[in-house]
Design goal:
By secondary structure, the protein is of the alpha/beta class. It is built from 11 helices and 8 strands.
Length: 380
């Protein structure tokens, strides 16, 4: 076995060892733990990598004549076993999400367990693949910040009229990220189910600040309401969603519609939303240099729309306690449904891949939106 293969296998094994209980403090190690465990937390990708690394080496002449070869073979077997256990944990996400949706909506939803074909598809194709029945209209301008004020529209190829709209915002800690990165499997799925989906970029730091970030989200919402019908969207049913920093922005936009500080020059535009979906978003704390407050816990939640919140219980990048506190605050302060799903074994960034865990989240989002959106053909 080559030195590169040995090094890769040791890295995989260490990542698997860290995954069940990632490092949470200090901050630098927590971020490193997240980066190392990003692929392992959705284990099908790493399982393929381990097999690619080790299987060719098994045919090497003399590999098992050396005691070190047996140790490496044992390490590979233990790594695969650990990945299998992590995969079993990801399967549990389905029941967790179904219970959360049933509790939040007050009704049972369909039990969609992963079938063999679905599981095999996730195993061999962990990266989202654009479905043929969905078309993408790329790089539509919505502001004055050049390439960072662009959005993509995903819609069914049969181009329905009056379709509900999902607006998604990427993560990246306000300093990186792009509209084609997170939650693509969710965007593809909802578009295939007759939604019009929008994924937007926004200016990043240091060129933009907190007010600019939220203001651009409000611009996207205003543009969807004004121009969405040209793309088949219903301007009266607009859902905002986001991942990580985008989840934070989606939450703030949902709680501050019409805030003049965030809508300079378009104060009269309607930026209310029908519901909000927050995937491992920052639900507490403050953004640097924020004014007005950027903490969701500081905002008045009495008129909040329905919320769907999903967070991995092994998130080492953003502690899960903030999401729990925000869900509790929403339930105390507002009457619309609040769904909070804490995913077993889930890390930060769980929507980067097509996985059984994120498929379960997609099931939950679809059921939640069917329950809270007054859309023809769906539950009201």
């Amino acid at each position: 076995m080559s030195t590169g293969s040995v090094a890769a296998l040791v890295l995989y094994a260490g990542s698997v060892l860290l995954a069940p209980e990632p490092i949470r403090r200090p901050r630098a190690l927590a971020v490193a733990s997240y980066l190392v465990g990003l692929g392992v937390s959705e284990p099908q990708l790493f399982l393929v990598l381990v097999l690619i690394t080790t299987v060719p080496a098994l045919g090497s002449s003399g590999l098992l004549d050396d005691p070190a070869g047996w140790w490496l073979l044992a390490l590979a077997a233990l790594t695969c076993a650990g990945l299998a256990l992590l995969a079993l944990r990801s399967v549990r996400a389905g029941d967790t999400v179904r219970r959360a949706v049933a509790e939040g909506l007050g009704e049972e939803t369909g039990r969609r367990r992963p079938g063999l074909l679905r599981a095999l598809h996730v195993l061999v194709a962990p990266f989202p693949v654009h479905p043929r029945r969905v078309e993408r209209i790329a790089d539509l301008a919505y502001g004055d910040a050049g390439r960072r004020n662009r959005l993509d529209v995903y819609r069914p190829r049969f181009r329905p009229a009056g379709a509900p709209t999902l607006v998604h915002l990427h993560g990246g800690g306000y300093v990186s990220g792009a509209k084609h990165r997170e939650a693509r499997a969710l965007l593809h799925r909802m578009a295939a189910e007759s939604w019009v989906c929008v994924s937007a970029d926004y200016p990043l730091r240091p060129a933009a600040g907190f007010v600019d970030h939220v203001g651009d989200v409000e611009r996207v919402l205003a543009r969807v309401r004004e121009h969405g019908p040209a793309y088949g969207a219903d301007p009266d049913t607009v859902v905002v969603s986001g991942s990580s920093a985008g989840g934070h922005l989606a939450t703030l936009a949902a709680l501050t519609p019409g805030e003049p500080a965030f809508q300079p020059g378009f104060e009269q535009a309607d930026t209310t939303v029908t519901a909000a979906v927050c995937l491992y978003g920052r639900c507490y704390g403050r953004a640097a240099g924020d004014s007005p407050p950027s903490s969701s816990l500081d905002l008045h939640a009495a008129h909040a729309p329905p919320f769907f919140l999903a967070r991995g219980d092994r998130d080492s990048y953003l502690p899960v306690e903030g999401a729990r506190a925000f869900a509790a605050r929403l339930r105390r302060s507002s009457s619309p449904p609040v769904v909070y799903a804490e995913l077993p074994g889930g890390q930060h960034g769980f929507d980067r891949f097509r996985s059984l865990r994120f498929d379960a989240v997609g099931d939950g989002v679809a059921a939640f939106l069917a329950g809270v959106c007054a859309v023809p053909g769906r539950r009201a």
